[in-house]
């Protein structure tokens, strides 16, 4: 028997479980969830991201074939994943994300930035294509759906600080006020955020 940890197991061990327990209790997200709990849901999402899975059926078959993974996720059908993706409040995972970032920033980051530079944050957006038939609100161009993920990264901690998802048509500069909120910080962004009237405030 091999004695080693997979990448998934290594990442799993980094999760702040006490935070997750508090989030689950506060949001009551596991009410009636006898099998597919928030923790198992999170494990499934982590696995899908790590392995680059492109469909719920692909996730289901991969879990079924991996007996080691099933210790954490149990046997989950694609329809169960679909229902929970729709029913479970995404704020559960948003709060978990913030707890993880808070933990990571305590031991990660860039340490050789001159102190005279102050606090540096990078703001950028990424366009993600999605199926327009499944997400009609994401209409981007003719027969094309897309969402835009606006991300603020703290350069010193080298971690994302805030993420906002909008439909793909939202121009970058119209989300700037969601991120540029604190004085004494140098924000770095490209020309997509050019808005001279906003800079005057």
Please tag this protein with its features.
8 helices, five-stranded mixed beta sheet, alpha+beta, single chain, 36% helix, 201 residues
Layout: helices, strands, pairs:
Elements: H1 7-12, H2 17-27, H3 38-51, H4 56-65, H5 70-73, H6 78-87, H7 91-104, E1 119-130, E2 139-141, E3 144-154, E4 159-167, E5 185-188, H8 196-199
Parallel strand pairs: 1-5
Antiparallel strand pairs: 1-3, 2-3, 3-4
Helix pairs in contact: 2-7, 4-6
Q: How would you explain this protein's 3D organization?
A:
The chain is α+β, with helices and mostly antiparallel strands and 201 residues long. It has 2 domains: 7-104; 115-199, no CATH class. Helix content is 36%, strand content 19%. It contains 8 helices and 5 strands; from the N terminus they run αααααααβββββα. It has helices at 7-12, 17-27, 38-51, 56-65, 70-73, 78-87, 91-104, 196-199; strands at residues 119-130, 139-141, 144-154, 159-167, 185-188. Strands 1, 2, 3, 4 and 5 form a 5-stranded mixed beta sheet that branches. The model has no long low-confidence stretch (mean pLDDT 83).
